[in-house]
UniProtKB/TrEMBL annotation:
<feature type="active site">
    <location>
        <position position="112"/>
    </location>
</feature>
<protein>
    <recommendedName>
        <fullName>Lipoprotein signal peptidase</fullName>
        <ecNumber>3.4.23.36</ecNumber>
    </recommendedName>
</protein>
<keyword id="KW-0614">Plasmid</keyword>
<keyword id="KW-0378">Hydrolase</keyword>
<keyword id="KW-0449">Lipoprotein</keyword>
<feature type="transmembrane region" description="Helical">
    <location>
        <begin position="84"/>
        <end position="102"/>
    </location>
</feature>
<feature type="transmembrane region" description="Helical">
    <location>
        <begin position="122"/>
        <end position="145"/>
    </location>
</feature>
<keyword id="KW-0064">Aspartyl protease</keyword>
<dbReference type="GO" id="GO:0006508">
    <property type="term" value="P:proteolysis"/>
</dbReference>
<comment type="pathway">
    <text>Protein modification; lipoprotein biosynthesis (signal peptide cleavage).</text>
</comment>
<feature type="active site">
    <location>
        <position position="129"/>
    </location>
</feature>
<dbReference type="Pfam" id="PF01252">
    <property type="entry name" value="Peptidase_A8"/>
</dbReference>
<keyword id="KW-0472">Membrane</keyword>
<dbReference type="GO" id="GO:0005886">
    <property type="term" value="C:plasma membrane"/>
</dbReference>
<feature type="transmembrane region" description="Helical">
    <location>
        <begin position="58"/>
        <end position="77"/>
    </location>
</feature>
<keyword id="KW-0645">Protease</keyword>
<keyword id="KW-1003">Cell membrane</keyword>
Length: 166
Protein backbone atom coordinates (compact mmCIF):
# COMPACT_ATOMS: atom_id res chain seq x y z
CA UNK A 1 0.00 0.00 0.00
CA UNK A 2 2.80 2.45 0.85
CA UNK A 3 4.53 1.78 -2.47
CA UNK A 4 1.22 2.47 -4.23
CA UNK A 5 0.85 5.90 -2.66
CA UNK A 6 4.52 6.59 -3.35
CA UNK A 7 4.26 5.63 -7.03
CA UNK A 8 1.10 7.68 -7.48
CA UNK A 9 2.77 10.72 -5.87
CA UNK A 10 5.86 10.32 -8.10
CA UNK A 11 3.75 10.07 -11.27
CA UNK A 12 1.68 13.15 -10.46
CA UNK A 13 4.79 15.00 -9.28
CA UNK A 14 6.73 14.27 -12.49
CA UNK A 15 3.80 15.35 -14.65
CA UNK A 16 3.21 18.57 -12.72
CA UNK A 17 6.94 19.39 -12.55
CA UNK A 18 7.33 19.09 -16.34
CA UNK A 19 4.20 21.19 -16.90
CA UNK A 20 5.49 23.82 -14.44
CA UNK A 21 8.87 23.94 -16.21
CA UNK A 22 7.13 24.29 -19.57
CA UNK A 23 4.88 27.13 -18.40
CA UNK A 24 7.74 29.01 -16.72
CA UNK A 25 10.32 28.56 -19.48
CA UNK A 26 8.44 28.54 -22.79
CA UNK A 27 5.98 30.99 -24.28
CA UNK A 28 2.82 29.58 -25.82
CA UNK A 29 3.84 27.94 -29.11
CA UNK A 30 7.58 28.18 -28.34
CA UNK A 31 9.76 25.07 -28.72
CA UNK A 32 13.00 23.86 -27.15
CA UNK A 33 14.91 20.92 -28.64
CA UNK A 34 15.32 18.07 -26.17
CA UNK A 35 16.52 15.12 -28.25
CA UNK A 36 17.68 16.37 -31.69
CA UNK A 37 15.67 14.92 -34.55
CA UNK A 38 13.28 13.12 -32.21
CA UNK A 39 11.77 15.17 -29.37
CA UNK A 40 11.23 18.81 -28.61
CA UNK A 41 9.22 20.55 -25.95
CA UNK A 42 6.55 22.81 -27.44
CA UNK A 43 4.17 24.63 -25.12
CA UNK A 44 0.55 24.15 -26.10
CA UNK A 45 -2.71 24.65 -24.20
CA UNK A 46 -5.27 21.92 -24.81
CA UNK A 47 -8.83 22.94 -23.93
CA UNK A 48 -10.18 19.49 -24.73
CA UNK A 49 -9.25 15.83 -24.41
CA UNK A 50 -7.09 13.76 -26.77
CA UNK A 51 -6.52 15.54 -30.10
CA UNK A 52 -8.53 18.48 -28.67
CA UNK A 53 -11.77 16.49 -28.78
CA UNK A 54 -14.53 18.00 -26.61
CA UNK A 55 -12.66 21.30 -26.73
CA UNK A 56 -14.07 23.81 -24.25
CA UNK A 57 -16.12 21.18 -22.38
CA UNK A 58 -14.09 21.40 -19.15
CA UNK A 59 -16.98 20.39 -16.87
CA UNK A 60 -17.82 17.36 -19.02
CA UNK A 61 -14.17 16.31 -19.08
CA UNK A 62 -13.87 16.74 -15.30
CA UNK A 63 -17.01 14.67 -14.65
CA UNK A 64 -16.04 11.86 -17.03
CA UNK A 65 -12.41 11.75 -15.86
CA UNK A 66 -13.52 11.96 -12.23
CA UNK A 67 -15.92 9.04 -12.66
CA UNK A 68 -13.22 6.94 -14.33
CA UNK A 69 -10.71 7.80 -11.58
CA UNK A 70 -13.25 6.80 -8.91
CA UNK A 71 -13.85 3.47 -10.70
CA UNK A 72 -10.12 2.70 -10.92
CA UNK A 73 -9.54 3.74 -7.30
CA UNK A 74 -12.46 1.52 -6.22
CA UNK A 75 -10.92 -1.50 -7.99
CA UNK A 76 -7.68 -0.89 -6.10
CA UNK A 77 -9.11 0.03 -2.69
CA UNK A 78 -11.57 -2.90 -2.66
CA UNK A 79 -8.66 -5.15 -3.70
CA UNK A 80 -10.53 -6.44 -6.72
CA UNK A 81 -7.24 -5.94 -8.53
CA UNK A 82 -4.45 -7.34 -6.36
CA UNK A 83 -1.70 -8.53 -8.70
CA UNK A 84 1.22 -6.04 -8.80
CA UNK A 85 0.89 -5.60 -12.58
CA UNK A 86 -2.80 -4.75 -12.31
CA UNK A 87 -2.18 -2.39 -9.39
CA UNK A 88 0.63 -0.68 -11.30
CA UNK A 89 -1.66 -0.29 -14.33
CA UNK A 90 -4.32 1.29 -12.14
CA UNK A 91 -1.81 3.66 -10.55
CA UNK A 92 -0.56 4.82 -13.96
CA UNK A 93 -4.17 5.44 -15.05
CA UNK A 94 -4.83 7.37 -11.84
CA UNK A 95 -1.58 9.34 -12.07
CA UNK A 96 -2.25 10.40 -15.64
CA UNK A 97 -5.91 11.15 -15.10
CA UNK A 98 -5.28 13.14 -11.95
CA UNK A 99 -2.36 15.00 -13.51
CA UNK A 100 -4.60 16.30 -16.30
CA UNK A 101 -7.51 16.94 -13.91
CA UNK A 102 -5.26 19.18 -11.82
CA UNK A 103 -4.55 21.27 -14.92
CA UNK A 104 -8.23 21.51 -15.87
CA UNK A 105 -9.21 22.60 -12.36
CA UNK A 106 -6.35 25.10 -11.85
CA UNK A 107 -5.98 26.45 -15.39
CA UNK A 108 -9.08 25.51 -17.37
CA UNK A 109 -6.87 23.69 -19.88
CA UNK A 110 -4.16 21.02 -19.98
CA UNK A 111 -0.54 21.95 -20.66
CA UNK A 112 0.90 19.81 -23.45
CA UNK A 113 4.57 19.88 -24.43
CA UNK A 114 5.93 16.57 -25.74
CA UNK A 115 6.38 17.09 -29.46
CA UNK A 116 7.73 14.30 -31.66
CA UNK A 117 7.09 16.18 -34.90
CA UNK A 118 10.82 16.18 -35.76
CA UNK A 119 10.38 12.41 -36.21
CA UNK A 120 6.84 12.28 -37.64
CA UNK A 121 3.61 14.26 -37.55
CA UNK A 122 1.73 13.58 -34.31
CA UNK A 123 -0.24 15.80 -31.93
CA UNK A 124 1.60 17.33 -28.98
CA UNK A 125 0.89 15.55 -25.69
CA UNK A 126 2.10 15.50 -22.08
CA UNK A 127 3.52 13.12 -19.50
CA UNK A 128 0.09 12.43 -17.97
CA UNK A 129 -1.09 11.24 -21.39
CA UNK A 130 1.90 8.87 -21.52
CA UNK A 131 0.96 7.52 -18.09
CA UNK A 132 -2.61 6.83 -19.23
CA UNK A 133 -1.36 4.95 -22.30
CA UNK A 134 1.15 2.94 -20.23
CA UNK A 135 -1.61 2.17 -17.70
CA UNK A 136 -3.98 1.02 -20.44
CA UNK A 137 -1.36 -1.25 -22.03
CA UNK A 138 -0.34 -2.71 -18.65
CA UNK A 139 -4.02 -3.13 -17.79
CA UNK A 140 -4.67 -5.06 -20.99
CA UNK A 141 -1.66 -7.32 -20.37
CA UNK A 142 -2.80 -7.86 -16.77
CA UNK A 143 -6.36 -8.69 -17.78
CA UNK A 144 -5.42 -10.98 -20.66
CA UNK A 145 -2.66 -12.96 -18.92
CA UNK A 146 -2.88 -12.48 -15.14
CA UNK A 147 -6.43 -11.66 -14.00
CA UNK A 148 -7.92 -15.16 -14.34
CA UNK A 149 -4.99 -16.79 -12.56
CA UNK A 150 -4.48 -14.31 -9.70
CA UNK A 151 -7.50 -12.10 -9.06
CA UNK A 152 -10.66 -13.69 -10.48
CA UNK A 153 -13.07 -14.81 -7.79
CA UNK A 154 -13.65 -18.55 -8.03
CA UNK A 155 -17.17 -19.95 -7.69
CA UNK A 156 -17.73 -23.18 -5.88
CA UNK A 157 -19.38 -25.86 -8.02
CA UNK A 158 -23.15 -25.76 -7.77
CA UNK A 159 -23.29 -22.42 -5.97
CA UNK A 160 -24.53 -19.23 -7.46
CA UNK A 161 -22.25 -16.26 -7.91
CA UNK A 162 -23.17 -12.92 -6.26
CA UNK A 163 -25.31 -12.04 -9.32
CA UNK A 164 -27.41 -15.18 -8.90
CA UNK A 165 -25.95 -17.09 -11.87
CA UNK A 166 -24.69 -20.67 -11.75
Amino acid sequence: MVWSIGLLAVLIGLDQALKYWTVTHLALGESAELIPGFLQLTRLHNYGAAWSSLSGKVVVLLVVTGALMVAVAWLLIKKIVRHPLGVTAGLFLLGGGLGNMIDRVLRGYVVDMLDISPLFDYPIFNLADCFVVVGAVLGAVYYLWFYDKYDKKERTHGHKDPDGHN
